Amino acid sequence: MVRVVNTDSHSFSIIENDLTDEENDNYDLEGSLFDIVSDVSINIGPSGELIATQTVSLEARSEQTKPLIPTLEDLLKHFGDEYEDTLDINFVAVKVGSAIIDIQGVINAAAIRAIADSLVNVSAMNDNLAKFGMPLAVGVVVSEAGITARDHARLISTAGGIYLKADSDVTLATHAVSGVLPFVLAVSAVVNDAYVDIKGNTQVNSQGDTTLSAYGWTNITTSASGPKATTGTGSSGSDSTGPKTPGNSGGFFAVSVAVQNVFTAIRESASANAGGNLTLSSTARERVKNEATSNPDDGGTSFTLENLINKINSLLTKSSQKTSPSGTGSRGGSGLTAVASKLTGAGTGTTNLVNTGTAGVTGTGQAGTTSSTQLVGALAVTYAENSNMAFIDTLGTIKSQGILAVHAKSSTINETIADGSPIKRTSTGATGVANPDAGTPAQETGMTYNGRTQGNVIFETTQNGFLTIDKTENQQAGNEIIITVHANAGYKLENITAGNGVTLTKIEDDKYKFTMPEGTVTLAATFIPKAYTITSSNENATGGTFYTSPRYGDAGDSFIINVTPNDGYTVKEVLVTYTDATGAKQSHAAQPVTGQPNQYQFTMPAANVIVTVTFEGVNKKLSIDSGISNGTITVKDSASNVIVSNASGSVTENDVQVGTVLTVEVTPAEGHRLN
Length: 675
Fold this sequence. Notes:
mainly beta, 45 strands, flat, 11-stranded parallel beta sheet, Immunoglobulin-like, single chain, 6-stranded parallel beta sheet, 4 helices, 4 domains
């Protein structure tokens, strides 16, 4: 057994105090002491051989769970809970780890087990530094777990089979709060790879099962918000211990970058021969939760997101340089460089998206004013990439006496939330009021249309619809103003209101009018989903996809179902199912749209509906080469019915539906064997 482990844990002991030895006063302190690299590798060179009568077990494990800077919290918490977070100044977490098994030689044993495991679980937060003017919290992780058999490697199992697994597991939490400065930025970035790669002229021979498995898990939580409110009884002066406003105006930015690549492969000219089952499995799971919450209180000075990004760019560059001497340093360095480019790349970087809005201008005509172009609110940006493959693409030979299976499973969950607070203008600049609903968003907020001003008419922010007026400037008292209601598809107007004592008169369903008074008028509207919901159900996801938009409708509304069959499949059935007013279940076929292939339509009943699409494979020819001799080949379906065979009296060509599971039976003639 070969087991190699590398971690970022370094422990110190404070020796017990002999003067007060009534209790155990030994305290340990652990931290990574600025060590950002934890690489581990097992290499079997071209001339290397591992030979055993029982099992050869290889394990490479990299584990990183400690903060960069020792926080003393493990020590100080012994003196009371109030000291537990003292001196936690880890606003930066940069971790580069890898666990690699590289095989170029020979392993010959009864059974072969190889596991490469990289674990990273870290956090970064600026809670204790925000009050000193540190507006950043940055977490960056580059992790890799891989097993490679290459060149002329040979893996031979004489009894128990071969099991190769690479597992890279990353959990990163980054949290930034505002303090002295009215801007705050939280950045989380992860580059995560896991792979089992059999390539070159490698030969894998096993008398038992052969399993190749790669697993990647990336879990990112990023948040940028105002500070936690504190309570007290003091006055509101600068020395007050009373309630503090949870945030300031400016910008609250949360940026998450996730790049994950997982694959299992037998490729190039590699060969595999399994006496049992041969299984290739690749699983990639990615979850990103990204949240920016703004609670502005008063006008802030002009500042750009680029100013903040540039503060961390040099950190990423230096971290990249530091990784270069290590075994996987080039990859770690390139990963960090890629993260930096995602944040700062010309034309495509995060900063380019918002610099125009966040720059602002300090007014010159009146002291203390702030430009109306200055963005004061919240921005959440997520870049999530999740690649997953399992494949056999080789010029070599693949044989399995049992089941040959290739599985690739992937899931990507992305939750990005930006909750900005309303802004108003005053003679001393832009100010705002904390959003009373912050932290409790509606279950489905839909599309937001920001508030705006046109002449003397002020429009409040709306969801899932907006209002327009026919006269957008120079409105005079006594002018008639026509309002047009624009509801998003699937939504309808619930109510519309006007301020300054104005009475609205309905002209038709989507038009209202009012007479312009002296001063300004504020218009507000609420839009709600229509009465009934459409739910989609795909009976055979491998056969194709479909969508119905919008999601909501009223009885009598007409809907289009857009269907896309995959290659080799066609649409078998499109059904609309619902429960009517009597409680009876109804099911009707949606009707094809004339002249529009793969489009279907239906009329919404007075009930919630389920749209179900069923795909079926088209028939394709399956035939057996007439040149095969000295043996028989028989292909059967799952019910053991013979589809084609070159045996005497059997058909050698037949129509088979795409998606049908087939079994191939090969029987060599007497005195012959399968080549």
